[in-house]
Specification:
binds glutamine, four-stranded mixed beta sheet, 30% helix, alpha/beta, 248 residues
Length: 248
């Protein structure tokens, strides 16, 4: 039986707004198709993980204080993580984790949290709390060559600069900066985004994109995922798109 191994980073520290839901959606959509899903967690004090041995690495959002707490620990794995990214392990990074994979995150108090420098972008929190990016957000992303509306919720003071290759273009909400037109960062095996929601519960297509990528990379063959009944998810998406795009 084909198996996908997932590493879930800092589940006890980086779980703002239920980002654990992304792990649950991945597990459900992997197992529903008859594949096996093995989930390991890592947090401060645990044995160092071998990032290259995983198919997917997931890390969620966190408030400035949580980011400060774990940054010294995360930095220890800078080289291992860079190596895993280059080898093609899929990284799904939400908000605070997205920020920490860049050069640095300057918190709202002005303190600099060094990032992993895996990517060249950097983030600085906006001091004007009225410009904190909070609310529903819809972007348009290119997924498997298809323009796809991606729906979520954002809550970040961080303003991210110098992304080279965004996750999507903002249709409603803020994105990388207050009033920005672009959101997140994406490469072949990385989706880094401000979208909570949880992201994958509102966007099953993104979940399947990640699952398909991970299976095809691991087993070196084309994998056509069996369609799942997403009637409920699609009805929810229709309502949200209507509410935020058609009525505004
Ligand atoms: N603390 C970061 C910010 O305020 C990230 C917040 C989050 O993960 N939702 O920008």
């Amino acid at each position: 039986m084909k198996e996908i191994n997932i590493l879930y980073l800092y589940p006890d520290i980086l779980d703002l707004y239920g980002d654990i839901g992304n792990i649950k959606v991945l597990q459900y959509r992997i197992e529903k198709r008859g594949f096996s899903c093995k989930i390991d967690t890592y947090s401060i004090g645990d044995m160092a993980p071998d990032f290259s041995s995983y198919d997917i690495v997931f890390s969620g959002g966190g408030a400035d204080n949580e980011q400060k707490i774990l940054s010294d620990d995360l930095i220890k794995y800078k080289d291992n993580i860079k190596k895993a990214v280059l080898e093609g392990v899929f990284f799904l990074l939400i908000c605070g984790s997205y920020q920490l994979f860049g050069k640095y995150y300057k918190g709202v108090e002005g303190n600099i949290i060094p990032g992993l420098e895996v990517f060249d972008y950097y983030t600085e929190a906006i001091s004007d709390r009225k410009k904190r990016c909070i609310g529903n957000i819809i972007i348009e992303a290119l997924i498997d060559g298809e323009e796809t509306k991606v729906i979520g919720f954002e809550n970040h003071g961080g303003q991210t600069y110098d992304t080279n290759g965004n996750f999507g273009n903002v249709l409603f909400g803020n994105g990388n900066k207050f009033g920005d037109l672009t959101e997140g960062f994406m490469t072949n095996n990385v989706i880094a985004t401000y979208l909570h929601g949880p992201l994958l519960s509102k966007n099953p297509k993104i979940a399947d994109y990640i699952i398909k990528y991970a299976l095809e990379r691991k087993y070196d063959e084309q994998i056509d995922l069996e369609e799942l009944d997403d009637t409920f998810e699609e009805k929810c998406r229709e309502q949200l798109i209507k509410r935020f795009l058609e009525n505004n």
